[in-house]
Amino acid sequence: MRRRNLGRDGILTETDPRRGMNAENTGDDRGRPTRRDLLAGIGGTSAALLAGCSTTIGTDPASTLRIGTLRPPITLDPITADSIGSEQAIERVFEGLYAYGEGTDIVPAIADGEPTTEDDGREVIVELDDSARFQNGRGVRAEDIVYSFETPLEEDAPTAWRVSPFESIAAEDERTVRFTLEELYPGLDHALTHPIVPKQEREDDREAFATDPIGAGPFEAASFSAEKKATLHRWDDYWGETEPEIERLTLASVEFPITQLTSLRTNRNDVIGPVSPLIVDHVSDVANASVKRREGYTSFYYGFNLNEGPTTDHRVRKAISYCIDLETAVSEFVEPMGQRQYSPLPPQVADDWDLPVDEWTDLANEKNVERAKNLFREADEASGQLRILTSMDPKHKEFGEALAGGLRDADHGALVISKPETEFVDRYVSGSERDYAVFVGEISGTPDPDTHLYPTFHENMTGVTNGTFYREDAVMDRLESARRTDDRDQRRQLYEAAITRLLEDRVCLPICSFENSFAVDAGVQNFRVHPIARVNPRLVGENRVVTVGDGS
């Protein structure tokens, strides 16, 4: 597995165990602004934004859509993408063999119709649409499909888990691809939405491709700055059936929810997302906009480092679980835009699979400071500092600080380390105790449990998308077996046993699920939210095209 040499620059928030408080704030809620405080500041902030940014607004607003996001892209390369923000930009530039419809069904994109199968479903044949083209004018060839599905494994990429069940992928001719499976793969439909990249063009310069890619989608990359902004222009020679009306799409980083709201009010942005619980009730009060939301498949969790350091001890992990009241944390930081969950699966996935959520709920601890102190003492871990790693996402940081506060209550030191996304995605899978004892993780999947569990916990993804370094053979075997059968009841039993063991071993602490949400200016028409996070913002859908007009 890959190892990384990382720098040590970033934002550190230290906890002084002697004082029992954060070294950079008062240790109570007096330093935390209320919603009223934040909203009261919008007027002054609005004036500053209008004064400093008015000349940067598009000259032709009817053809321009600007989205202020808390999740900016860090790469435009589908092979190496490992964040929702990156995937959301990539979805505009690239096409898969298949794409999601209005729900979680798939429809042909580069593929010419439905796949055909042989050998009881173990051979899958896909014909390519003759009109499919990349943005340099070259036709999409079968060798590009083979390359797109083989390369993630060859490069040990974050997307490898999606394509690993294929035993082989072969080009039968220029327009025909054959996928061979060892066993039936229940996640086949979702795997076939994997974006297709042009083989030669990416191989010519992989580094340049990550910022100036060539795809087969309706938008071309015009400019890109990692973690800051991606500007995409409509590809006027797009070969697909429906062209977008939007001529220019900008995905711009906004650091704080209140800044998002202000940008919506001042028309700096047409859309903002995701919508923070901090501002959701105030969108219509301060802007001519409305909130559009949909239950999705994204969740948050605390992951423990089982490779090095104090959290390799089960007693320490259990002690940490007694340090935080997650019911209260979710109530304060998440509701009404999400809900508490008690397993690595979003509630609707667990319910749909008839999994024992009530039993898993009973495994969750209530906060018990004395119990935590006793466990820390038993493990000889009553002093020192536990490193909590988060990204710069405000929600991640809130969860990090909430856990640090609970550790302080138990007389244990804590160090919250918040890193830019480009560093975070490397550090949380390093396995080094210098980087983290605990990290705040995020899973974005589909209705299939495999998309939540395999990349997050299976040992094959250790150091790539799995930062826990958990290696229990029984759990690994169950996760692997569950993706090798289409017997739903058998899969359910395998997932039930695997998840129960993950929770009992305190490999992670599930926190919550989070809805997909955007606040949309009234001038933006036909904007709908998709349940799969990476599909958003969807600018062309079945029988609808997003437009920007006069919302007054």
UniProtKB/TrEMBL annotation:
It comes from the Archaea. GO terms for biological process: peptide transport. GO terms for molecular function: peptide transmembrane transporter activity. Residues 15-34 have a biased composition (Basic and acidic residues). InterPro entries: Peptide/Ni-bd, SBP_5, SBP_5_dom. This is Family 5 extracellular solute-binding protein. Residues 106-460 form the Solute-binding protein family domain. The lineage of its organism: Archaea, Methanobacteriati, Methanobacteriota, Stenosarchaea group, Halobacteria. One of its GO terms (cellular component) is periplasmic space.
